[in-house]
Design goal:
Elements lengths: L6 E6 L6 H14 L3 E6 L3 E2 L3 E2 L4 H10 L4 E4 L2 H4 L3 H15 L4 E6 L4 H12 L4 H15 L4 H14 L2 H13 L23 H5 L4 E2 L8 E2 L4 H15 L5 E6 L7 H9 L21 H17 L15 H9 L7 H8 L6 H13 L3 H11 L8 E8 L12 E3 L2 H12 L7 H28 L6 E2 L2 E2 L11 E3 L1
Parallel strand pairs: 1-2, 1-6, 2-5, 6-9, 10-11, 10-14
Antiparallel strand pairs: 3-4, 5-10, 7-8, 12-13
């Protein structure tokens, strides 16, 4: 609560901000009245392993104009990771503010109680149902399913209470092909109106829902926002039941973020001619930088053949992906071409795209493992929160944030430097400060490096209010909207 009003937190990408997001924010205020809406948003790179279509400041400004009161950045290490880490990173960021009451997400089902049951099933590691779930996942993977599909079908089996019927549904789905494929173009369908839905959520399937027909029950798919909602609920529970949970049913009339991005990249005038478009960022703009980085790692491996591959230091890079990338090393390929050459039943497009992005940005397994262990529990808050923008009505909230507030990258860099200069640690308090500063540096430096990479391929645009993004984190102004 703040000033006697509810504070509603959402986790999002706003890639870009669109009418579906505006609908969600308006719906929040219809439900909760005069409240504050705080968004934890991805930075310059998003969960599907690519650069955001517009930079984080332009997306922040659009969100503030659309009714969000405060936008805070999810650290790049988590916003470009798996759906589970994306959700946990978003929850940890909101939790670190200290005044968010409710975590709310868009949902196809609009049924938080049912999603809670699924989250409890996956979290209850000592139960018979959880053991049954894990066994079913293992059997499904061995039967040839991807992990996401295997997990989804296993949830259906356990929740149905009818193993034989559920198993028949699994066999039908295996023999009938992937129901998530668009028959027109072979691409994954993307649901519309989602509030910043990451791609991993689109790849999963699986909630059992009741069919009202006289033929009894029938398994239908757990849809994308519901899958991500389960991850939010799990993160909230793991972090000490830090929020109340709520969801709002999606309105499917709005154009999808995917369709909007396609229109931005391939603009056409009313008469069908190609029109002039504003600047945007695209993953293939990173191709040369990625190729150069891969060459570095390849020759590191050549110089130390007895050591594990340097490629495998990076998040989401498996032995198979590393070997496949080394086979491409002498070929001139775009970022997308490298993904397509490796994509398989076991490795989705998004998983490979994330792996390549982590190689480019230098996001290591070791760093993520350490930070995940530190901040995804219920004890520790993030060492800082990066506030990207705020509305004037909520500006006083900055004084109530429970952790360090960063509105200027240059000032915060100086703070970290002053801690690092201290040569001796004499008290337990100084030791804690030093550890926190070390973790803060890891997060901060990664975000700064990621922003610099992004700014090499993106040209900031202007809006009616003038220049929003400066293209330089250390001169960028904190955004304040009416």
């Amino acid at each position: 609560m703040y000033n006697g009003k509810n504070v509603i937190g959402i986790v999002t990408e706003f890639n870009p901000f669109h009418e579906g997001h505006k609908y969600l924010i308006d719906s929040i205020r219809l439900r909760y009245g005069d409240c504050y809406v705080v968004a934890a948003m991805s930075g310059d790179f998003v969960q599907r392993g690519e650069p955001a279509i517009y930079d984080k400041y332009e997306r922040t400004w659009a969100a503030l104009q659309g009714g969000v009161d405060m936008v805070v950045q999810i650290p790049e290490m988590f916003s470009t990771s798996s759906a589970e880490d994306f959700a946990a990173g978003g929850v940890a960021t909101l939790r670190s503010l200290g005044f968010v009451d409710i975590l709310l997400f868009g949902s196809e089902s609009g049924d938080p109680d049912h999603l809670m049951k699924i989250a409890d099933l996956e979290l209850d590691s000592g139960s018979k149902e959880n053991a049954k779930l894990n066994a079913a996942i293992r059997d499904n993977v061995e039967a040839g399913m991807s992990y996401a599909k295997a997990r989804a079908e296993a949830i259906s089996l356990v929740l149905s209470g009818d193993d034989e019927k559920a198993f028949e549904n699994i066999l039908d789905s295996v023999s009938g092909g992937n129901p998530d494929e668009d028959l027109n173009n072979g691409k994954k369908s993307e649901n519309i109106g989602e509030p910043g839905l990451p791609a991993d959520a689109r790849e999963g399937t699986g909630l059992l829902k009741k069919d009202d027909s006289s033929s009894g029950t029938m398994a239908s798919r757990l849809l994308p926002n519901d899958i991500l909602g389960v991850e939010y609920i799990k993160a909230v529970k793991r972090q000490g039941d830090c929020f109340r949970i709520d969801c709002i049913r999606r309105n499917q009339k709005f154009e999808s973020a995917h369709a909007i991005r396609d229109a931005i990249k391939n603009p056409r005038s009313e008469d069908g001619d190609v029109s002039i478009n504003r600047s945007y960022a695209d993953v293939d703009m990173l191709s040369d930088m990625l190729s150069y980085r891969m060459l570095q790692l390849y020759y590191l491996d050549r110089m130390s053949p007895e050591q594990p591959s340097a490629f495998m230091d990076y998040l989401d890079v498996s032995r198979e992906i590393a070997d496949a990338l080394k086979k491409q090393i002498h070929d001139r390929m775009t970022f997308t071409e490298r993904i397509e050459a490796i994509k398989s039943k076991n490795y989705t497009y998004t998983r490979i795209s994330r792996a390549l992005l982590h190689i480019l940005l230098g996001i290591s397994k070791k760093d993520v493992r350490v930070l995940r262990g530190r901040f995804f529990g219920e004890a520790d808050m993030m060492p800082y929160v990066r506030i990207l923008g705020i509305r004037k009505r909520a500006r006083d909230m900055l004084g109530s944030v429970k952790t360090t507030v960063v509105t200027s990258a240059s000032k915060y860099e100086k703070q970290l430097f002053s801690v690092r200069r201290k040569e001796t640690i004499e008290t337990p308090e100084e030791l804690i400060l030093s550890i926190n500063a070390s973790h803060a540096e890891t997060l901060f430096n990664q975000d700064m490096y990621s922003a610099d990479v992004y700014n090499k391929v993106y040209s900031p645009g202007e809006c009616d209010d003038g220049l929003i993004s400066y293209g330089n984190e250390f001169t960028q102004k904190f955004l304040i909207a009416d």
